[in-house]
Amino acid sequence: MNDSQLHYSFPPMSEYVLGNGLRSIWLPDTEQPVIEVLFQVPSGRAHVPAGLEGLSDLTANLMQKGPSSMGHEEYIDTLEQVGASHVLDSGDEHTTFGIRVLARHADDIVPKFWETVTSPAFDDKEFRRMKREMVTALEAEFSDASVLANKHFQAELYGKDHPLGRIPCVNSVKRARLDDVRSFCASHVSPANASIVVAGDRSIEGMEQQWKRPFGAWKGGTVRRASPFPETAPVVENRIRLVDKPDSSQTTLVIGHPSVGEAHPFRNALALGNYVLGGGSFRSRLMAQMRSRAGKTYGIASQLVTGRGAGTFLMSTTTQSGQVDEVLNTIIEVYRDVTENGITEEELDNAKRFAIGNLAFQLEGIGNVAEKILWLRFYGYPNSYIEKYGSTIAGIDLAAVNTALRNALASRGFVICAVGKREEIAPKLGRFGPIRVVNLRAEP
Amino acid sequence: MSASILDNTRERTLSNGLKVICCRKTSAPVVSAQVWYRTGSAHERDGIRGISHILEHMMFRGSKNIASEEHAQRINDVGGHCNAFTAEDVCAYLNCVPRNYLDMVFEMESDRMRGLALDPATLETERKVIIEEYHTYMNNPVAKAFLEFRRDFFDGHPYAVSPLGQLSDIQSVTQDDCRDYFRKHYHPENAVILVVGDFDSEEKVFEKAGKWFGDIDVPPDVPPAAVPPVPSSATGESRRGEWMKRIVEFDVPMLILGYPAPESAAQDALPLDILQMIISQGESSRLHREVVRRQSVAVMTGGMNHFLKLCGMSLFFAAFTPDINVRRVWKALEKEISTVRDRGITTSEMTKIRNTTLTHRALEMYSAEHICQRLGFSETVEGDHRLWIERMQALEKLDRDRVIEVARKYWDPRKSHALFLKPKRTKPLLFIMGLARRIVPRS
Q1: Which residues of A touch B98 (CB under 8 A)?
Q2: Environment class of residue B345 by beta-carbon count within 10 Å: exposed (0-12), middle (13-18) or buried (19+)?
Q3: DSSP 3-state percent helix, strand, coil across chain B (nearest 5)
Q4: Range of B125's domain?
Q5: Engineering a disulfide at A187: which of A55, A224, A369, B66 sits with its beta carbon 3.0 to 4.6 angstroms away?
Q6: Whole-angstrom Cα distance, residue B75 to residue B244?
Q7: Are B33 and B206 in contact (CB under 8 A)?
Q8: Is A133 on the interface with B (CB under 8 A)?
């Protein structure tokens, strides 16, 4: 790595909080004649009431169906006529709405987008249509082993009582009423907790002149402060959820346990350790062992999913059902070796070089820069977090990584989710722990 | 914007026939460097179907000076990423690295162009990996059904087989088969290098290319790769509105409707893309507006053109609830298609498509990798990298009569081919829900 990679400078921008509490960021860039607006609230799937899983997705989608002042078809026609398109990123703890439009049409389109986000029509006909679409999409997921495995893993790990265990399913979407949507929107979408970035082909002054006033005029609802998520108990003994998929010749496995959140002091050290374990593609030990040496899978990876409070660590792969026990055993052995014995100086060096060099790709194009700024604000980081990221990573030593792996990752037990043919894999998985078999179409 | 890419793009052919195309783009300190070989599953014969894909994997498993998987590891070590794909007409090897690592990419790409290790034990391990990949694909009921659709659509032609190949051939391809196929197809005359991003100058790129690739010889006595001509099944001449039904482990009934399409480089390809966007793209598209919203016959609709070097497919699909008869869905799709064919499109629709295409193009331009990939496809599949750029200019001049002419030429119901995916298990709840919605319409 070279010195220039250790320091990054964001392009010039202007940022402040408007009188109504809305954090506004103006980010000019002339590379392409496009304007991108991203609006984010710190609410998502984990903030919906129990029994109404999927409500945040329904709400987010309906909020892009047009403002109360115009019908859906008129709104969509107006947008699509000039080539504008929506962006929607719906997560456990956040929802991001956006619009991308040619700069020459931005003055017409951005106000309409703003109006639909802040004053959505919530039309009953559109609501029922949206529910039908979501139900069909959820039904289609029954054939996707990877999606099923991840949903059932998260449900098994957290349970229905924990906000992170609230997984959208067919029945919960059917249960939702339009009043639930209105109520969720009113209590979670407000200038007091939202941020907006306007990025693209216009000067800061030009952006402010056009949009600062309407952004500042929005009143919004009374935001309901989300309570911190309850602590999740460590997994001390393996527990297995087997999703019976009788037509599959392969088994998809997701194995993991609760982990640390984004703000945890070990976070960056753990990310480097995870690169060596399974995050680093062909540099990772899991890939080397399971694919390169044994040919037992097309792909295997591990990841740290870090939220504001809690986090999740998971490893996932797909393999022939006949060898699922052998594969699971090896995954656990590799995990134990990395978390108990640590990684080497050479492996750490590779992980650091990847983390530092990769930042340039994460920030290619103004849209990626805008997303990164929203990510920083969501976690409460200043820009210097990214600007100094290279030197922060470079300064992490082997002892810190191995301590983090031992203290913050090593788990005695795992939650294991296997999606495959029950009669073939149940006998092979029994030695890893008690198995609960669920139907393919069961609610997660 | 497109013009500036054209202005910035330079090309040079080395003395061994290897073409190098580069485009300087300095907005981010990264470089995308790709090598595209003009070989894919269409060049395979019976007995070795899937060998291009096997070689794609083996390209990462070592060459004379690069150890097995060292290529991917070294790219990762500088923060970059690499990948590859095998298609019907091409195999492409994609690398993205920080700006000062172009030499490293050229060193490794040139080493594998000179020859592969093809170690027998490694080949056996990688064969297992590929078989896992094959099964993952085949365990997806929609993907599996679509394979049957293409087998029928391109009946009698290598395009009928997916680039993944035939399982029996994947299991039996030998080291000698791989060596022979590599020798015939992986040489400088059959390849193109593309570099887009933050490099010093075009001259420097050509100089580096000459240094690393300039002395790689084309093997003697290698005949030009040949692909059989397009079969009558793909032009639609041998079919009469045929359809097939497959019972699948999928909960949502689906209909896929395909029409013949021209080769990717054809003049008709652009108007056909415009038509496809008008019919199926976005919530203001004709299918969504009419079939989903007004008639409530389907829950989702979509479409795409799949253009290949010799011919293509123009595809439409609809997902619907079990209470709807598939023939009704089929009729509704065909009605929208025939309306375009008979009555044409509006000026407003043309404007919408121009704006949509302009926006997509602008967003693509942020990424060096996307630009590289577009140039690579146009150069190797369509014969000239400029086509991708010039198509945007052609869009400005395209008139509605020309678009309608193309609709009439290709979207002929007598030439269509349909596939109905019928769920093995009809969900009573879904059925009742759909039926109730139809008996007591609320919208």
Answers
A1: 5, 357, 360
A2: buried
A3: 50, 20, 30
A4: 7-213
A5: A224
A6: 46
A7: no
A8: yes
User: Burial of A257 by CB count in 10 Å (0-12 exposed, 13-18 middle, 19+ buried)?
Assistant: buried
- Fill in the amino acid letter for A348: L
Picking from A77, A80, A354, the nearest residue to B76 by CB comes out as A354
* Partner B contacted by A357 (CB < 8 A): yes
Q: Is A103 on the interface with B (CB under 8 A)?
A: no
CB pairs under 8 A between A and B: 194
* Token couple for B34: 């790709």
Please give, rounded to a whole number of angstroms, the shortest distance from the CA of A415 to a CA of chain B.
23
Chunk chain B into consecutive blocks of 10 residues (it has 443) and report each block's average pLDDT, rounded to whole numbers: 73 98 95 98 96 98 98 97 98 97 98 98 98 93 87 90 97 98 97 97 98 96 83 70 79 93 95 95 96 95 96 95 93 95 92 94 95 97 93 87 93 90 71 51 37
Angle, in degrees to the nearest 10, between helices A106-118 and A204-217: 30
Give the pLDDT of residue B441.
41
- The answer to whether A4 contacts chain B (CB < 8 Å) is yes
Question: A253: which 2 tokens?
Answer: 């496995």
Query: Cβ(A61)–Cβ(A129) under 8 Å?
Result: no
Residues 283-302 of A with CB under 8 A from B: 283, 288, 291-298
Does the CB of A83 have a partner CB in chain B at under 8 Å? yes
Mean predicted confidence (pLDDT) in A53-75: 96
For chain A, the average pLDDT equals 95
**CB atoms < 10 A from the CB of B397, how many?**
7
Residue in chain B lying closest to A351 (CA): B77
Residue B219 lies in a domain: no
Q: Give the tokens for residue A78.
A: 């107006």
> What percent of chain A has a predicted confidence (pLDDT) above 90?
93
Instruction: Compute CA distances A57 → A47, A192, B11, B111, whole Å.
Output: 11, 21, 48, 49
Q: Are residues B177 and B295 in the same domain?
A: no
Contacts of A357 in chain B (CB under 8 A): 77-80, 98
Last residue of a domain, one of B213, B245, B267: B213
Domains of chain A: 11-217 (3.30.830.10), 239-439 (3.30.830.10)
Interval A358-391: pLDDT, tens: 999 999 999 999 999 999 999 999 999 999 999 9
Residues B259 and B178 in one domain: no
CATH code of the domain covering residue B334: 3.30.830.10
Instruction: Provide, as residue numbers in chain A, all residues whose Cβ is less than 8 Å from the Cβ of B60.
Output: 282
- Residues of chain A contacting residue B29, judged by C-beta atoms under 8 Å apart: 4, 360
Look at chain B and report how many structural domains it folds into. Answer: 2
Instruction: Name the residue in chain B with its Cα closest to that of A139.
Output: B251
Contact: B79, A129; criterion CB under 8 Å:
no
pLDDT of residue A378: 96
| B204 and B237 co-located in one domain | no
pLDDT tier at A7, thresholds 50, 70, 90: confident
pLDDT of residue B7: 81
- The dihedral built from the CA positions of residue B428, B433, B434 and B438, taken in this order, carries a sign that is positive
Residues B134, B269: one domain?
A: no
Side-chain half-sphere exposure of B273, counting CA atoms within 13 A: 19
The amino acid that residue A278 corresponds to is: G
Contact B29 A4 (CB under 8 A): yes
